[in-house]
Amino acid sequence: MTALGNAFVKAHGKNIARYHRLLRTRLSDVERNYIESRILEERAALQALATVDDPEPTVDAAVAAHAAVVRVIGIQSRSRSTFNCRVDGI
Fold first, then answer.
1. Most buried residue among 6, 28, 34, 63 by CB atoms closer than 10 A?
2. Is residue 36 packed enough to be buried (19+ CB in 10 Å), middle (13-18) or exposed (0-12)?
3. From CA 32, how far away is CA 30, in angstroms rounded?
4. Mapping DSSP to helix (H, G, I), strand (E, B) and coil, where does residue 86 land?
5. pLDDT, tens digit, 9 for 90 and up, residues 6-62
6. Higher confidence at residue 72 or residue 65?
7. Whole-angstrom Cα distance, residue 59 to residue 16?
8. In 1-90, where does DSSP find H-type helix?
């Protein structure tokens, strides 16, 4: 993996760590659900990066993979919960 790919992996890893730190604080149920959904999205984005065939992922490829993950997770979370989080403009 190239420096760009490593940077994406590092960024997603730091985001996951930050969300886990937030989960150790006092949060409402809505906030906790949102953070848990973000952790799932970040993990899915890491998985998507790991399955990219291109050894040098571009920013466009990473953004497209992330957008696909957000769409899939958004569809799943709407079907399981009344808490909805929309992501527009990706």
1. 34
2. middle
3. 5
4. coil
5. 888 888 999 999 999 999 999 999 999 999 999 999 998 888 887 765 555 566 666
6. 65
7. 20
8. 3-23, 29-50, 59-80
- pLDDT recorded at residue 20: 95
Amino acid at 68: A
Q: Locate 40 and state its tokens.
A: 């799932």
Token pair of 79 as six digits: 């079907």
pLDDT at 57: 55
Instruction: Classify residue 25 as left (phi > 0), alpha (psi -120 to 50) or beta.
Output: beta
Q: What is the DSSP letter of 53?
A: S
């909805």: which residue's tokens?
84
Place of tokens 């466009």: 60
Which of 83, 90, 87 lies closest to 29 in space, CA to CA?
A: 83
Q: How confident is the model at residue 65 (pLDDT cuts 50, 70, 90)?
A: low
Start-to-end C-alpha separation, the chain: 24
